[in-house]
């Protein structure tokens, strides 16, 4: 029996939630770097939203609530834009301050977690778009 693509996505999103929240805790507690912690936490939250999207797809919940997918699509697009802005901001500040790449308190790691946030926002947007497209086609057929 082949593994369904949705189950792989659920596993990947679960791993992303764990990594994002662990980055939030590590950079808040151990390193005291709030910007990296914030971007790691946001990455974890977006991975959690992607996980919720996939689980709700498996439970066939989106068929009755297409507005929720539209909301997740809008939030994913918003956080994509926010992550791109944060990525270039952190990168330019780190370059301007001549911070070390190996320092765990440098803003280079904040830009890395901004990129991870961009990745999860894109995954959320893409999965919400795909599921909405799939269920919108089905809902048109149900009306007739």
Can you offer a commentary on this structure?
By secondary structure, the chain is mainly α. Helix content is 82%, strand content 0%. It contains four helices and no strands. The chain has helices at 5-29, 34-58, 66-96, 107-143. Helix 1 (5-29) packs antiparallel against helix 2, helix 2 (34-58) runs parallel beside helix 4 (107-143) and helix 3 packs antiparallel against helix 4 (107-143). The longest helix is centred in the last third of the chain and has 37 residues, at 107-143. It is elongated, with a radius of gyration of 18 Å. The relative contact order is 0.16. The mean pLDDT is 89.
Average of per-residue pLDDT values: 89
Task: Point out poorly predicted stretches.
Answer: none
The tally of helices reads 4
Largest sheet: none
Tell me the radius of gyration: 18 Å
Shape descriptor reads elongated
Distance between the termini: 35 Å
What share of residues are in beta strands? under 5%
Structural class: mainly alpha
Portion in helices: over 70%
List how many beta strands DSSP finds.
Answer: 0
Order of helices and strands: HHHH
């Amino acid at each position: 029996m082949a593994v369904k693509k949705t189950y792989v996505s659920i596993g990947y999103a679960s791993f992303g939630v764990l990594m994002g929240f662990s980055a939030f805790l590590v950079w808040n507690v151990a390193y005291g770097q709030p910007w990296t912690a914030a971007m790691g936490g946001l990455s974890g939250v977006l991975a959690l939203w992607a996980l919720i999207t996939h689980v709700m797809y498996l439970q066939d919940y989106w068929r009755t609530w297409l507005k929720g997918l539209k909301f997740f699509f809008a939030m994913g697009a918003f956080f994509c834009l926010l992550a791109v802005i944060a990525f270039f901001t952190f990168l330019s500040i780190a370059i301007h301050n001549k911070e070390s790449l190996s320092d765990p308190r440098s803003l280079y790691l904040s830009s890395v977690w901004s990129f991870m946030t961009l990745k999860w926002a894109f995954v959320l947007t893409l999965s919400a778009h795909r599921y909405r497209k799939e269920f919108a086609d089905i809902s048109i057929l149900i009306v007739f």
